[in-house]
Design brief:
Number of strands: 16
Radius of gyration: 34 Å
Strand content: 25-35%
Number of domains: 2
Oligomer: single chain
Order of helices and strands: HEEEEEEEEHEHEEEEEEE
Length: 285
């Protein structure tokens, strides 16, 4: 009787061990072999920044992978310094999946910023590629920092370029600053074809002379191009009579500052000997 009980006990033990091993080796979960994958840091991308103004900008991002774990939060982080993190300025308006975007606000004018998309799960925070952008300068900001006049030069007629009207925050995207002064000066424009001269006050410029000896609009049939209305051209050689090429109180696009926009014409600098001389009046201080 005792032998029979021992045999039955042994059989039960063997069956129990075999059952445990069977269930332990049965695949489960979603990973290779059925195991549940460990969470990893999310993968996100950062799109280019768009709709940049003086104090705002828009940016979008995409969550490529949630890292096998639910996204706890996502959005964007930005800073004046490279490689921003969630310890810097941050938005929390992201999405648990797919595309998301934000409108960064309260930025400073004329400042370089860096932005990255981010997404966080239980494994940590993943960041997208860094994107650099520069906020625009409003007219008021530029006027407060500029005296006298500036000479810019480029290889396309400035008045035909996109955003040419918005001189104070777009000209540096297209043209190169050759120099600036409050007194009469000669400027070497190199091989650049076209010029733009900007002055804070309408009575700063008396005349513009080119290297071939001709004066701006002095019997040459040049077309005066300006950014504002109520225009009368500089009529020729220095005579103390100033061309009114701007209107006080108008500042594209919001009319909040006093300045005199830009002045240029439709002939190339090189066709007139290259280089130019700006002859000033009394209003350049």
């Amino acid at each position: 009787m005792k032998r029979i009980l021992l045999k039955r006990t042994a059989v039960l033990i063997v069956l129990s061990v075999a059952g445990f091993m069977f269930y332990s080796c049965t695949p489960s979960g979603d990973g290779p072999g059925g195991e549940t994958p460990n969470p990893t840091i999310p993968v996100v991308t950062t799109n280019d920044v768009s709709n940049i103004t003086y104090t705002t900008a828009e940016v979008a991002g995409i969550i490529v992978s949630n890292g096998n774990s639910s996204i706890l939060r996502s959005g964007f982080c930005w800073s004046k310094n490279p490689v921003p993190t969630i310890s810097d300025n941050v938005s929390l308006d992201g999405s648990p999946s797919g595309t998301f975007k934000t409108n960064m606000q309260n930025l400073e004018e004329g400042v370089d910023y860096y932005v990255r998309a981010y997404a966080t799960n239980i494994a940590g925070t993943g960041y997208g590629a860094e994107k650099k952008f520069t906020t625009n300068l409003s007219c008021q900001t530029m006027v407060s920092r500029r005296q006298g006049y500036q000479v810019w030069a480029g290889n396309q007629p400035y008045y035909q370029l996109a955003n040419h009207y918005d001189y104070f925050y777009s000209i540096d995207k297209y043209y190169t600053l050759i120099g600036e002064s409050t007194t009469t000066q000669t400027f070497n424009t190199g091989t650049y074809l076209y010029y733009v001269i900007v002055s804070k006050y309408w009575n700063c410029l008396d005349a513009i002379q080119f290297n071939d000896g001709t004066y701006y609009n002095h019997g040459q049939g040049y077309t005066l191009i300006t950014g504002l209305a109520e225009v009368a051209p500089i009529t020729g050689a220095p005579d103390g009579v100033f061309g009114k090429f701007g209107t006080k109180g108008i500042c594209p696009p919001n009319g909040t500052a006093t300045y005199n926009a830009y002045i240029t014409d439709d002939k190339t600098i090189t066709s007139r000997g290259g280089g130019l001389r700006v002859i000033v009046g009394s209003g350049c201080q």
